[in-house]
Amino acid sequence: MRSTTSARPARALAATTALTAALVLAGCGNDEGDQPQAGDDIVTSGPQSPGTGGTDDGGTATGGTGDDSATGGTSSDDIGLDEATRIALEDAGVAEADATIQRQERDQDDGRVHYEIEFSQGGVEYDYEIDAATGDIISSDRDD
């Protein structure tokens, strides 16, 4: 009869090693699941200064993916949240330091990605939609 007691520790060691390797490799992912992807809504809300980034109270990321995350863009075809905000402020003739940002959102309607920017200054509210690819102003509204 063959002894199985010496084979059990070797099998246990092999199983433990395989399990440890699997857990280590599973933890080496690229974290892409944590980042917004193209087509995801990027929303900020509440008063804030343009370009401050961060998260809103709900924890929604205001940055994008890849190398453009500091500006809120998601690719080289996307102008980014900061640039969209700058375009809206410039068109309204409002200095960045004087504006209170109410809402910034990256959205997609009918396959067209755009940024919705709402801000106020001196009791006047502004609402802009900026094309994410071109920076063109899709619509603008001013409520005195």
UniProtKB/TrEMBL annotation:
Query: Per the record, which residues fall in region Disordered?
Result: 28-85
Extract the signal peptide range: 1-26
Could you tell me which residue ranges the PepSY domain spans? 79-140
Where does this protein have compositionally biased stretches of type Gly residues?
Answer: 51-66
- Which stretches does UniProt call biased (Low complexity)? 67-78
Name the Gene3D superfamilies on file: 3.10.450.40
Q: Provide the alphabetized UniProt keywords.
A: Signal
Q: Origin, by domain of life?
A: Bacteria
Q: What is this protein called?
A: PepSY domain-containing protein
Record the organism. Xylanimonas oleitrophica
Enumerate the transmembrane spans. none
InterPro entries associated with the record: PepSY
